[in-house]
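User: Structure tokens for this complex, please. No commentary.
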Amino acid sequence: MIRKYSSFGDVDIPGLELLSDVDVGSRVRMSMSDDAGGTIQKEFIIKGIVKSKVDEISTRMFITDKEFRRLLPVNQTQIQEIAIRTDKSYAPTLVAEMKTFMGNNIARIQTSDDAIPSFLRDVETTMGVLGNALSSIALVVASITIFIVIFINAVTRRKFIGIMKGIGISPVAIQFSYVIQAFFYGIIGSGIGLVVTFGFLKPYFAANPINFPFSDGILVATFSGAMVRIGILLVVTLIAGYVPAKLIVRKNTLDSILGR
Amino acid sequence: MIKATHIVRSFGEGDLAVTVLKGISLFIDSGEFVAIIGPSGAGKSTLMYQLSLLDEPSSGEVELDGVKTSGLSQAEKTSFRLQELGYVFQDYALLPDLTAVENIALPMLMQGMRKQDALVKAQKALLRIDMGEKANSLPSQLSGGQQQRVSIARAIAHEPHIVFADEPTANLDSENGQRVMESFLALNKEGQTIVMVTHEAEYAKHAKRIIAMRDGLIVSDEKRA
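Assistant:
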């Protein structure tokens, strides 16, 4: 509607009237028909621009409930959509209550999530699958890395492991020390991951979203989700630390001491 | 007390089998200082590994302080080594990341002793070998002789019944070798049982008993005054 922000602002399309010299803060007068066939005129101040990559949303005008009441008795057939702001967790309950109260024939009643176009939902699902696949690959890489680090560490200290066993230190205690070492690596890695993700990447992509044709792409990472992944990583880390330590510690004590 | 009965130790199988110990029997009483000597390949280190539970004989029985060790599981042998035996290795075998006093305290910590108590006992063991001032030094900051004496302190700190030493002077010059032997003598005077393997007659003469080996057999067993 406002030429400055319209995709068609630089061309004249017959039948499409765009508002020139209008911007945020401008006062505009709107004319609407009422139920009796008359005309209602009201003035509005443009508070802001809803910027969206979906034209269906960008071409809409949004007014608050208070402004809407100021228009009454406007012809209600001119209202295409009523948006209700509520707590996200309460939205499904509200929708169900409204359907019960109003029935299904008067209007389509749905949550904002339900209103997301299916292609966007498919994209979201695909991104989620890709994210999980990348997480799985990262987990495998991390476990292999820790396995190699602990294995090399244990191999290079095989003689000392032999000595410790020789002087009577239990193999379980020696293995435990390597598991603790692996666990420490896991904790440090997870800490760095948390700092990078929540301290840098997430804020960065929030400020500089990826410019997809249909939407802006941001990094969706929840703290609870990260905690679950860290939990899985630490379990895998413990196993990746235990196995190589076990392989080395189980070797013959005397062979280890003598380097045979 | 150590009692070995017809110890045989073979390596390899079939035609390639090599018998290093060919049926050795001996008795070492508590408080003895025994040197096992012999040329390279005589089997002296192999014998010590059998007596100290670091290896298992192919046949025969080793009895330590009345315990028949052939019936012990690996875990029981590990526990026995921790509680009853002390070791001094040829190359000192100190853990490089731990200080001298920590190296000595480690076996006692593994026995379940409180850290403070273990460190106090470790410090006392260092004082017994005149190394008290090196308590907080890392092995890399010590000379070979000093490392070996720390190793001796580690072997005795938890008050084992028997200390086994495998070529403890092999990597040392004569002055440091002499100091190590003096440490052993002082410990033995206090009643510590010591079994030492060496190929150097100069050091073996400090022992009260010298067992000579050749080709897997004991060829002489001499007690000295």
